[in-house]
Amino acid sequence: MTTPRNLVVIGNGMAGMRTVDELLKLDGGRDCRITVFGAEPHVNYNRIMLSSVLAGDKSVDDIVINSQEWYDANGICLNKGDPVIAIDRENRLVTAASGVQVPYDQLLIATGSKPLAPPIPGLELPGVCAFRDIADVDKMLEAARTRKRAVVIGGGLLGLEAAWGLKQRGMSVALVHLMPTLMERQLDVAAGQLLQRDLDRRGIAFFTDGQTEEIVGTERAEGVRLADGRFVPADLVVLAIGIRPNIDLARAADLEVNRGIVVTDDMRTSDPDIFAVGECVEHRGQVFGLVAPLWDQAKACAARLAGDETALFTPQALSTSLKITGVDVFSAGALMAADEGDDEITLRDDGKGIYKKIVLRDGRLVGAVLYGDVADGQWYLKLMREREDVSALRERLVFGRAFAEAGPGAPAATDYAAMPDSEQICGCNGVSKGNIVGAIRDKGLTTLPEVRAHTKASASCGQCTCVVEDLLVFAAGADARPAKKTLCDCTDADHDEIRQAILAQDLRTMEEVRTAFAWKKPEGCHKCRPALNYYLLCAWPGEYHDDSRSRFVNERVHANIQKDGTYSVVPRMWGGLTTPAELHAIASVAEKFDIPTVKVTGGQRIDLLGVRKEDLPAVWGDLNSAGLVSGHAYAKGLRTVKTCVGSEWCRFGTQDSTGLGVKLEKMCWGSWTPHKVKLAVSGCPRNCAEASIKDLGVICVEAGYDILVGGNGGVEVRVTDHLVRVSSEEEVLEYTGAYMQLYREEAHYLERTAPWIARVGLDYVKRRLVDDPEGRAALHGRFLHSQSFMQHDPWAERARGADAHEFARLPALAEA
Amino acid sequence: MSYQWKNIGPLANIPAQGARRLCFGHQGHPVAVFRTGADEIFAVVDECPHRQGPLSEGIVSGRTVSCPLHNWVIDLAAGEALAPDIGRTRALPVRIVSGEIHVGLPLAGERAA
Ligand code: SRM
Ligand SMILES: Cc1cc2nc3c(=O)[nH]c(=O)nc-3n(C[C@H](O)[C@H](O)[C@H](O)COP(=O)(O)OP(=O)(O)OC[C@H]3O[C@@H](n4cnc5c(N)ncnc54)[C@H](O)[C@@H]3O)c2cc1C
Ligand code: SF4
Ligand code: FES
In chain B, what are the domains? Predict the structure, then answer.
């Protein structure tokens, strides 16, 4: 038996670790002893998701690709935070900054690239950073917490994602770009302009044709000065003008380098025992800046390392998209006609903000730029990769796949059976057809979310979603379930179908619903049970028997569970009003039960946090004696009605906003709704109660009351739409009751009013509530009817002994 | 493996599709005893493999419970998280003796495992 070979990897990044991962899957790879050096003090993570970390959509933990356990389990020695400083080819030895020396039989260089820095003064100032690794993101997040203004230099993919992330983090952001339009290497002028217009509307200030001359500042960065004299103030300057392959080590070791480390199709450098992959390489004159080709490189390289002398890397056509929520951009291949032989076909709808351009050469598609509607991007990419003859489709092609394939001369639908297993489907996560089909078959997957969860395909940028859906149909056949939003995995029916059937077929219990729809699991699951429980409660007020076992713990125990398993208690304070007696009661309860934290919430009331479960009934009992009842801070139901002081005290108040808020809360408390509901009443347009981001807000004016609906101050902030102006409090109450009931009867479970109105449209809500006075009165009537069964304080019931098993310890064991 | 059997009383002590939690002073891990809709009894260490969420507070469907903190679904018989999540909490033996539930607790020393 031979002694194991030593493989040393320089660079713990995406391409290097992917190569190792591929190698471990091969027989010839298992006998390697692998040592990895990484300059960053982290395990391997998904660099492309740094944009999502910056924007707050993901945490650093979420983007780890291989955990320390993975390295340990595979016997890989990982030297984190220890860059290699020299390669000694003669003695086959690498030396790291720490002084560690490791001999190699084979060496893999995967050092990625370095951010380009413009040759300008001021680069060394604190407050200037690049956008490449976790350390950069930490710097940006720190700046976003403590400072206000950011300037991003560079209007390419990286710069735009940096600008958007910082904007999401609350900074005011300017972007300086050398060229007249954004992303000029991926987008043509028209699409670049649309992009700029949309981002401009989202509050990013653009300085195009802007050549940065200097970063100004003494102690730290204070702004940038442009060549034409413009000055843009900033506390943070992010450089994102491009990257350059990191070839320093290779050059010092006398390997052949050009722009990148020169490799042949087998991923070998000019030294046959030294391989290179990733952004540091140059292959047939081409360098790389996207991950998709790196997965193919990793595969070829791993095969070679394992002794397969046939594996080759062949680059494929690539596409780009931008990871900014709500901005859809796609580009692949040529951006415009190169000469008269080429044809450009464009489609443009300025009203909808849609732009599409395709470029044809010799009857074949060679480029596509899409803005606003990118659904067909992957289809175009496929036509390009397969060099399909599309002349017969010429007139229809730009309208997209559905239209083109409906007509004569359509290319045959993709033959997934003939597609090789190795074909890469998801560029971001490097998932091949074989991986996807294998997972679908082995694990019996039937839906897109399942495939995503198991393979990560289409889970990062989402571009390849259509192909993954096709593969699902191909591999799972009739079992594949459409992307239709079913209630949960227990059924093929969607929310609306179930709600309608409950009424039409007179279904009275969960059991009856599950039977009527042939539920797959007899008892359902944690997703459908709370939804069905709510739908039945809403449909049959006073008759349906609430199933506490189908409620999420908070609603079952009428308090919010905290991360340590204790609970919080939030009593109602009607319209934000309280009294000295109530405050005394809260203070005594907090003392008596050793409640560690007393906090004023963002909803104008007081939260007692850290209450032991077994103390809950007694705490409630004491609060009840002072007249305090549950604030339903745990419920998918009415939470708070915020008010301002209004005409009673305020020098600008036009109406009694506080009094009206109390009336609204008295009418709505205790109701169960699809998701939580928050109201507010402001006494004048200064809007101190923040009524314009509530599910329903009222703004008092001299002439009456403006009723606003569908606002949200949470994850996706949405400003309310104006529903109607009315002149009396009675009308406000009627509109509110009717609105509550419409939402209760028609929204999907866990859908707040903002996405509900976005789905059904404001016009629909107006038709039901404003244009139809009888319908409105009927809805209001149904709401009050339902409320007549709901307005019992759940705390009082439990303080008196209901559900006692829920709170008592098991006596026999309390001491065990 | 040897167990110390604890009698925790009649089935009725635990609500159907529910659970009760047993606590052991400071040294031991809490134990959740579940009763399913079909009146089967299971006991597992009351710590979700994800981040130690109290499984006893979750929604019980069939032979699974979904953790109240982040909705991992745990198979009660094995204590194992269902895919795509990975992890397990320790499952403990139970037996019913003349209508009363007995839970097998690992003897001190083994409990930390
Ligand atoms: C206590 C409180 C924070 C505070 O100390 O101020 C709070 C605490 C929680 N909020 Fe909140 N929110 C609180 C006001 C708000 C506000 C401000 C407001 O109401 O004016 C908002 C933004 C307004 C809005 O909802 O539109 C807010 C938006 C959220 C969201 C995002 C909702 C969304 O639709 O995007 C969640 C998550 C959810 O509900 O799914 C959330 C969820 C939570 C949960 C329930 C998280 C959880 O599941 O454990 C927290 C539980 C608190 C507890 O155990 O007591 N909280 N939360 C506030 C309680 C208000 C009250 O008196 O009832
Ligand atoms: C914010 C951001 C967003 C992106 N978005 C996308 C996208 O949406 N789609 C896409 O396709 N691509 C995207 N990319 C590009 C993608 O991340 C890169 O193409 C990919 O990471 C390159 O992989 P690599 O292994 O070559 O380099 P890297 O992942 O950078 O890995 C190289 C590693 O080597 C280390 N190293 C360098 N020198 C040494 C040394 N001497 N010793 C030890 N270690 C060393 C480095 O510290 C680094 O950790 C994005 C990049 C960034 C920064
Ligand atoms: S909104 Fe402002 S101005 Fe108007 S009543 Fe309230 S506090 Fe006064
Ligand atoms: S702790 Fe149980 S799912 Fe997170």
Answer: 3-106 (2.102.10.10)
**Nearest-CA distance A674 → chain B (Å):** 18
A618 has a chain B CB within 8 A of its CB: no
Tens digits of per-residue pLDDT, A44-60?
999 998 998 998 878 88
Count contacts between A and B (CB, < 8 Å). 76
Distance CA A659, CA A475 (A): 62
Q: With contacts defined as CB-CB under 8 Å, which chain B residues touch A552?
A: 59, 68
Quick check: B108 contacting A, CB < 8 Å?
Answer: no
Give the tens place of pLDDT for each residue, A692-725. 999 999 999 998 999 999 999 988 889 999 999 9
For the segment(s) A634-792, the CATH number from 3.20.20.80, 3.30.413.10, 3.40.50.300, 3.40.50.720 is 3.30.413.10
Q: Is B111 on the interface with A (CB under 8 A)?
A: no
Most confident of A182-191, A428-437, A631-640: A631-640
Residue owning tokens 């609105």: A739
Q: What is the pLDDT of residue B111?
A: 45
CA distance readout (Å), A37 to A16, A375, B27: 10, 41, 42
A404: pLDDT strictly greater than 80: no
- Residue in B61, B63, B66 to test binding to A, most A beta-carbons within 10 Å: B61
Measured from the Cα of A712, ligand 1's closest atom is: 26
- pLDDT tens-place string over residues A422-470: 887 887 788 889 999 999 988 888 888 788 888 888 777 666 777 888 8
Beta carbons of A255 and A269 less than 8 angstroms apart: yes
Chain B within 8 Å of A69 (Cβ-Cβ)? no
Q: Is the pLDDT of residue A509 over 70?
A: yes
Query: Which of A447, A456, A487, A526 should we substitute to test contact with B (largest number of B Cβ atoms within 10 Å)?
Result: A526
Residue of A550, A552, A816 lying closest to B24 (CB–CB):
A816
For the question of whether the overall pTM of this predicted structure is more than 0.95, the answer is: no
Distance between first and last Cα of chain B? 12
- The CATH superfamily holding the domain A328-406 is FAD/NAD-linked reductase, C-terminal dimerisation domain (3.30.390.30)
**To the nearest whole number, what is the mean pLDDT of chain A?**
90
Nearest to B68 among A443, A549, A553 (CB): A553
CA distance A168 to A172: 9
Mutational test site, ligand 2, from A53, A100, A111, A428, max ligand atoms within 8 Å of CB: A111
Of A525, A812, A813, the CB nearest to B61: A525
**Chain B 70-89, residues with CB within 8 Å of chain A CB atoms:** 71, 73, 83-84
Q: Do A805 and B62 touch (CB under 8 A)?
A: no
Q: CB A552 to CB B59 under 8 A?
A: yes
Cis before B84? omega within 30: yes
With 0-12 / 13-18 / 19 or more C-beta atoms within 10 angstroms meaning exposed / middle / buried, residue A446 is: middle
pLDDT digits (tens, 9 = 90+) for A673-693: 999 999 999 999 999 999 999
Under the banding of pLDDT at 50, 70 and 90, the label for residue A405 is confident
End-to-end CA distance of chain A: 58
Residue A812: pLDDT band (50, 70, 90) is very low
User: Which residue reads 């998904």 in tokens?
Assistant: A46
pLDDT at res. A590: 96
C-alpha–C-alpha distance, residues A667 and A661, integer Å: 10
CA distance A238 to A162: 8
Within chain A, all domains assigned CATH 1.10.10.1100 are found at 424-479
**pLDDT at residue A355 is higher than 60:** yes
Place of tokens 């036009």: A654
Task: Extract the tokens encoding B89.
Answer: 């909490």
**Range A424-479: architecture per CATH:** Orthogonal Bundle (1.10)
**A582 CB-side CA count, 13 A:** 14
Distance of residue B22 Cα from the nearest chain A Cα, in angstroms: 6
